[in-house]
Amino acid sequence: MATTASKLPSPARHDSLGIPMHAPGSRLSKATNKYKDTHPVPEKPHVGPDIEAYKSAHSKTVGPHSDAWWAQQARENLSWTRDFTTVRTGGFPTAEELKEGQDPSTLPITWFPDGNLNACYNCVDRHAFQNPDKTAIIYEADEPGEHKYISYGMLLNEVCRVANVLKGMGVKKGDTVTIYLPMTWQAAAAFLACARIGAIHSAVFAGFSSESLRDRIIDCGSTVLITADEGRRGGRSVATKVIADQALKECGDANPVKHVLVLSRTGSKTVAEQHFTPGRDVWWHEAIADVPAYCPPAEVNSEDGLFILYTSGSTGKPKGILHTTGGYLLGALLTVKYVFDVHPGDKFACMADIGWITGHTYIIYGPLALGTTTTFFESTPVYPSPSRYWETVSKHGLTQFYSSPTAVRLLRKLGHQHVQDHDLSSLRVLGSVGEPINPEAWNWYSEHVGKGECAVVDTFWQTETGSIVVTPLPGAIETKPGSATVPFFGIETQVLDSMTGKPQEGENVEGVLCIKNPWPSIARTIWGDHKRYIDTYLRPYPGYYFTGDGAARDEHGYIWIKGRVDDVINVSGHRMSTAEVESALLLHNGVAETAVIGTPDEMTGQAVNAFVTMKPEFTYDSEPALAKELVLQVRKIIGPFAAPKKIFIVGDLPKTRSGKIIRRILRKIVAGEGDQLGDLSTVAEPEVVEVIKKKVAESA
Ligand code: WTA
Question: In its keyword annotation, does this UniProt entry include ATP-binding (predicted)?
Answer without folding.
Answer: yes
